[in-house]
Amino acid sequence: MRQLFDLQGRVAAVTGANTGLGQAMAVALAGAGAKVSLIGRSAPAETEEMIERAGGQSAAIMADLSRSDCAERVVAETVSRFGSIDILVNNAGIIRRTEALDFTEKDWDDVLDTNLKTPFFLAKAAAARMVESGGGKIINVASLLSIQGGIRVASYTASKSGLAGLTRLLANEWAAKGINVNAIVPGYFATNNTEALRNDADRNREILSRIPAARWGDPSDLAGTVIFLASSASNYVHGALLPVDGGWLAR
């Protein structure tokens, strides 16, 4: 059974791995045996230290993920450093909060570029390598707003809804090539993106009252899920949107 979840000899690339959900998933993948490239605009020094302390191996690859033209280089650098790319976790994302009537075109484009356009081209670049090596795992980080509408986050909702659709489309196209494409649907987690909500006493209370688990998620709650989707345990799982939400969607 342990062999099903063993990632020894695998190479993973995780975007936005310097903090929060990306950091937790990168550390989890390294703990399961994968070598991990940590991709983002900010140096992931803390994540590198956590992986090193756990006996894992990682390398930082700097990239501006608001620009999709970084995709080929990022994948090529991962392969150059570690010999392959077997797992891609499209985690990096940004959010802009304002009423739809006041939303600017820049706030729309910035979010769509980072949250949807770049993940597609990273997946495309990684899949080209995975086809050559016989398969791989692509894990997108979606959102409750891939399923629900939300408020005051028009471009974020659009991007995450698009990412859910893209997950299904790529699963349809690539399953027969040995590439599993799935998405994690995190609920309300204690991260930088939710700091404003947690600091708003009324919204914090409203959100907690809706979560059956009665708490905000901790990034470490994603560890088992990402290892499952990255490992051979999920070889017949394609196009799934897997909620990790404390029961929010079941409410």
The topology string of helices and strands comes to EHEHEHEHEHEHHHE
Helix content: 40-55%
- Stretches where pLDDT falls below 50 for ≥5 residues? none
State Rg.
17 Å
**The CATH superfamily title:** NAD(P)-binding Rossmann-like Domain
Q: Any idea what the CATH architecture is?
A: 3-Layer(aba) Sandwich
Count of extended strands: 7
Specify the oligomeric state: single chain
Q: Helix/strand-derived class?
A: alpha/beta
CATH topology: Rossmann fold
Number of helices: 8
Instruction: Supply the CATH class.
Output: Alpha Beta
Strand order of the largest sheet: 3-2-1-4-5-6-7
Mean pLDDT, as a whole number? 97
The amount of beta strand, in percent, is 15-25%
Give the biggest sheet. 7 strands, parallel
> What distance lies between the first and last C-alpha atoms, to the nearest angstrom?
33 Å
Count of domains: 1
How would you sum up the global shape? globular
Description:
By secondary structure, the protein is an alpha/beta fold. The protein has a seven-stranded parallel sheet with strand order 3-2-1-4-5-6-7, sandwiched between helices. Helix 1 crosses helix 8. It is globular. The two termini are 33 Å apart. The model has no long low-confidence stretch (mean pLDDT 97).
